[in-house]
Specification:
Layout: H1 5-16, H2 20-29, H3 31-36, H4 50-59, H5 62-74, H6 76-80, E1 91-95, E2 98-102
Antiparallel strand pairs: 1-2
């Protein structure tokens, strides 16, 4: 179970005022919600049961959310530092200061591509 699942699902639930059952259904149907709670890709089955949300709420209190928010705001400048990355060396996904390294193959031209016709040339 991804670490972001508990706080992420509670944030979605509170933001949109959803019941436990509605939340599970919305996460199952919405790719963006699945990404937000840390799932690796789209899945058409429930990520968790409604009873799991009760456990989330018991373990994650409003005080814990407030402490996390204060920490994030205090360290905001560190998160805004842009990572240095060279596209030629390694292709990286850079989002909000996090780096996920990975090699991407060089793009290959399409077979039979001759370029765009220039005005005046015979097509």
């Amino acid at each position: 179970m991804p670490l972001r699942m508990a706080p992420g699902s509670l944030i979605i639930q509170n933001r949109y005022q959803l019941s436990d059952r509605e939340l599970v259904k919305q996460i199952m149907e919405n790719l963006y919600y699945q990404y937000f709670i840390g799932l690796p890709g789209y899945q058409d089955k429930p990520a968790f049961d409604t009873s799991t949300l009760v456990l989330f709420r018991k373990r994650i209190t409003a005080d814990m959310f407030n402490k996390a928010n204060k920490y994030l705001l205090a360290n905001k400048e560190e998160d805004q530092k842009k990572p240095t990355c060279s596209y030629k060396e390694t292709a990286v996904l850079c989002t909000q200061g996090y780096r996920v390294p990975g090699r991407l193959p060089e793009p290959e031209p399409c077979a039979g591509y001759q370029g765009y016709p220039i005005a005046g040339n015979d097509l």
